[in-house]
Specification:
The structure is a single chain. This protein has four domains: 41 residues, no CATH class; 58 residues, Band 7 domain (Tetrahydropterin Synthase, Chain A, 2-Layer Sandwich); 163 residues, DD-peptidase/beta-lactamase superfamily (Beta-lactamase), CATH 3.40.710.10; 78 residues, Lipocalin. It is built from nine helices and 27 strands. The strands form eight sheets. The chain has a nine-stranded antiparallel beta sheet. β25 and β26 form a beta hairpin. The radius of gyration is 32 Å and the shape is elongated.
Length: 415
């Protein structure tokens, strides 16, 4: 069988080849042309004619590109953990090199930006947000810093220091400092959980979190109870540290903060104190009353609503004291615009005194006893002030609600 192509077919073939050889590049585009696989030249903008099968072209956009840099966790030169978000602007100035010398210049630019960001910030010191001693701020890494300081001063490993000076004298046998790897944790430990979307799911500590410090000391409720029982009895083996631990932190102007040098929240007089710690799905509370020589400790491995934590502690303390138990948190309502407006300003709170609240979106400020504390939005109905361990919300009629271990009250607006 013989195949023949007429003039019509030949004309159609020529038209197809002509169309295949034409390219139109916009003003902001360039074409990197290859001839039999070798670089030939950069063409454009406008009409570009290519020899089919012999020449190939790669388009390059010369416009400025806006690219988000993935969030970076950086350790600064002064060992401060910083989370950084960034945006980079770049454009191609040499299409030939962008195509020939880099396999994917978009990915290469993103990776280079991340590496440069970490490198530059790692050589910088984080400037204080305020002069030391003039303000109170929440510090999530300070326990870890103190652990390193304790090692430098004593020459002992942190866990060995805790075991010899605190755990053993208090009769605690099951405490340990969290290791850097999850698979190095002791066997048989509890696993953290949380309730989410109508079901229970694991909420355990992440791997590769190789810090140590008070926020990563693990113990059972029995171990914590023995520790606070020792504190309730005076803890003579701690020496002067027992009194120093409940000494209120004071600012440079003499104002007394709501937390002590040992990280305890204490009632006036320093005879009743408690400490709480939250890490992923775990939550622990230690409470002691030196006047009654009473100690209470509890540990949960499932995240519970913030409003219930202080209420549960109050209930357990009441039971230990022989009083009626009523675990009933203040009923707060979702904070819409009207409720947020009502929260702003001065309030008189029983057991606390006058407080001032300023709200700005998910953050805010609480001023009490002459000290400003940061507020964090933790639920649709509440803000949390770590410096005084208080949960703030609003009643249906717009009055301030205050919930802490020592005080549960509804404030009165001061006009």
């Amino acid at each position: 069988m013989a195949w023949t192509i007429g003039w019509g077919g030949l004309a159609l073939l020529l038209v197809v080849l002509a169309v295949a050889s034409l390219r139109i590049l916009r003003e902001y585009e360039r074409g990197v042309v290859f001839l039999l696989g070798r670089f030939w030249r950069v063409k454009g903008p406008g009409l570009v004619v290519l020899v089919p099968l012999v020449q190939q072209m790669v388009r390059v956009d010369l416009r400025t590109v806006v690219m988000d840099v993935p969030s970076q966790d950086v350790i600064s030169r002064d060992n401060v953990s910083v989370k950084v978000n960034a945006v980079i602007y770049f454009r191609v100035v040499d299409p030939q090199r962008a195509i020939i010398q880099v396999a994917n210049y978009f990915d290469a630019t993103s990776q280079l930006a991340q590496t440069t960001l970490r490198s530059v910030l790692g050589e910088r010191r984080v400037a204080p947000m305020f002069a030391p001693g003039t303000h109170f701020d929440y510090c999530n890494v300070c326990y870890n810093v103190l652990a390193v300081v304790a090692e430098r001063v004593t020459g002992e490993r942190y866990e060995a220091l805790l075991r010899e000076r605190i755990w053993r004298p208090a009769g605690i046998a099951d405490a340990y400092v969290r290791p850097a790897k999850l698979d190095a944790l002791p066997p048989g430990r509890a696993v953290g959980h949380r309730w989410r979307d109508g079901r229970d799911e694991p909420r355990d500590a992440e791997d590769n979190e190789g810090f140590h410090g008070g926020s990563n000391v693990y113990a059972s409720a029995r171990g914590f109870a023995r520790f606070v029982a020792a504190l309730a009895g005076g803890a003579a083996w701690l020496g002067p540290a027992a009194a120093d631990a409940v000494e209120p932190v004071r600012l440079a102007d003499g104002a007394t903060t709501g937390i002590t040098l040992g990280g305890w929240f204490c009632a006036p007089g320093g005879q009743r104190c408690y400490f709480n710690g939250h890490h992923q799905g775990f939550f622990a509370v230690m409470y002691w009353d030196r006047g009654r020589r009473l100690a209470v400790a509890w540990v949960s491995n499932s995240t519970m609503p913030l409003s219930l934590r202080n209420a549960l502690t109050r209930g357990l303390v009441a039971a230990a004291e022989g009083r009626p138990v009523a675990v009933s948190p203040v009923q707060a309502v979702p904070l819409d615009a009207a409720k947020l407006a009502a929260l702003a300003g001065d309030h008189e709170v029983g057991g606390i005194g006058r407080v001032r609240v300023a709200i700005d979106g998910k953050r805010g400020t609480l001023r009490t006893a002459g000290v400003d504390y940061e507020l964090f939005r933790v639920s649709p109905a509440a803000y949390y002030a770590p410096g005084v361990d208080a949960l703030l919300g609003a009643t249906a009629d717009g009055r301030l609600t205050w919930s802490s271990v020592f005080v549960q009250a509804v404030g009165t607006p001061v006009r």
